[in-house]
Amino acid sequence: MTGGIDAVFRIAAVCLFDSAGALLVVRKRGTAAFMLPGGKIERGETPRAAACREVREEIGCRLSPRTLRRLGVFDAPAANEAGRAIHAHVFDGRGIDAAFARPDAEIASQHWLRLDRAPDVFLAPLLRDHVIPALVSTAPASKPTGQ
To answer: Which among 97, 106, 110 has a CA at the least distance from the CA of 58?
Structure first.
């Protein structure tokens, strides 16, 4: 701790997809980077509970902690606070219908990101360097045609 402020933010975030397999990313007001829905874990809160609370607050989707699968725990530079870092518990919400997600609270906009294409928006380091590679490596293999 430096001056009573943690240099590392503990956060929880969720990967949500539409029916075509595009990943939902959001951008907070006053920022440039798109990131996963999620946020800081409050004292006494589990990462799964924090992820569900943050998703409800930010995009209006109600999730059950039981429906989330752990994708991984990653460390990355904070997207919007120079000199800070995040320690992120990231959950995979495949199978959860996120089609009705709507920006709320501090969210300025949302975007559906295709993982099979180069990003068309500016991405937060956590998403770019850790989450997308993890999602791509765990994606179900497509079946060969004609078999």
So the answer is: 106
- Over its C-alpha atoms, the chain yields an Rg (Å, rounded) of 15
**Residue at 124 is within a domain:** yes
Per-residue pLDDT for the chain (147 aa), expressed as one digit of tens each?
444 445 899 999 999 998 888 999 999 999 999 999 999 999 999 999 999 999 999 999 999 999 999 999 999 999 988 889 999 999 998 888 777 788 887 899 999 999 999 999 999 999 999 999 999 988 765 444 443
Residue 147 lies in a domain: no
Q: Is 143 part of a structural domain of the chain? A: no
Asked if 96 and 63 count as a contact pair (C-beta separation under 8 A), the reply is yes
What are the φ and ψ backbone dihedral angles of 117, each rounded to 5 degrees?
Answer: -135, 160
Which pTM does this prediction carry?
0.87
